[in-house]
Design a protein that fits this description.
Elements lengths: L1 H18 L6 E3 H8 L3 H13 L3 E4 L4 E4 L1 H7 L8 H4 L1 H11 L2 E8 L2 E8 L14 E3 L4 H8 L3 H14 L5 H14 L2 E4 L6 E9 L5 E10 L5 H20 L3
Antiparallel strand pairs: 1-3, 2-3, 4-5, 4-9, 5-6, 7-8, 8-9
Helix pairs in contact: 1-3, 2-3, 6-10, 7-9
Length: about 250
């Protein structure tokens, strides 16, 4: 049984190493060791196994690691017919071209939201949105949408997590935000998660009325002002509605 536990632990650690590359292109042994909080010797052994199997590639010149071709081979077998990021990408690009700002698509995964697709703004000064990024569910416009359209049990979990991790979190105020989000059909955030950034999001509902994703437009706060977000709201809501007609 102990051998089984050790095997599972090694698998979990290897997966943690791969997940380090969700937001960066390459990392050194030291950087990976720091991110997964493991000794360098342990990480080195795991890296060697991942490299042999083709999941990572080590650049001899920089002595840094990047994702290998085995991951691309696996991703080629993903079912694109059920991939929201693929299905909705043309509409996201149309929305980006219309408003000029970065457009993202989010799903809820436990107590986090995950960006599964993004179309970057063409502005020189823009908000870069890396695909795969994870953020808490109690901060930001997309989080409000994903939480407002979730069931009460999920909402309660989000509120409890926010109270545990955020000093001074106002439960009643956040509940009011959720009710307003559901009533208006969209949510906004202005420098909530990071200084200088703003966003507006709307729910993408399938034909059954079930929430499929949160559609967000984000950009610099000096460009995506509250007044501008109010003007953009009907456009984003309509884009989300069109996307919903493309889903079951």
């Amino acid at each position: 049984m102990e051998d089984g536990k050790l095997t599972v632990r090694a698998v979990e650690r290897a997966l943690d190493i791969l997940l380090c590359f969700t937001q960066v292109h390459e990392l050194s042994l030291t950087e990976i060791s720091q991110r997964v909080d493991l000794h360098k010797s342990t990480v080195h052994r795991l890296l060697a196994s991942l490299e042999v199997k083709g999941f990572l590639i080590r650049d001899a010149a920089s002595d840094k690691y990047r994702l290998g071709f085995s991951l691309w081979e696996l991703s080629a077998n993903l079912s694109q017919s059920d991939d929201l990021g693929v299905i909705l990408l043309p509409e996201m690009e149309r929305l980006r071209d219309s408003l000029g700002e970065t457009v993202s698509l989010y799903l809820r995964d436990g107590m986090e939201r995950v960006r599964i697709q993004a179309v970057q703004s063409n502005h020189a000064i823009r908000r870069v949105a890396p695909v795969g990024a994870r953020m808490p569910l109690f901060v930001g416009a997309s989080s409000k949408v994903l939480t407002a359209y979730a069931d009460e049990a999920v909402q309660e979990q989000v509120l409890q997590e926010a109270q545990r991790s955020t000093p001074g979190f106002d439960r009643d105020s956040y509940l009011q935000h959720l009710r307003e989000t559901h009533r208006m059909g969209y949510a906004t955030s202005f420098e909530e998660r990071e200084p200088g950034a703003a966003a507006i999001a709307a729910p993408v509902l399938g034909r059954s009325g079930k929430l499929a994703a949160a559609l967000a437009v984000s950009g610099p706060a000096n460009r995506l002002t509250p007044e501008m977000m109010l003007a953009y709201a009907p456009i984003i809501i309509e884009a989300a509605r069109r996307m919903g007609t493309m889903l079951p």
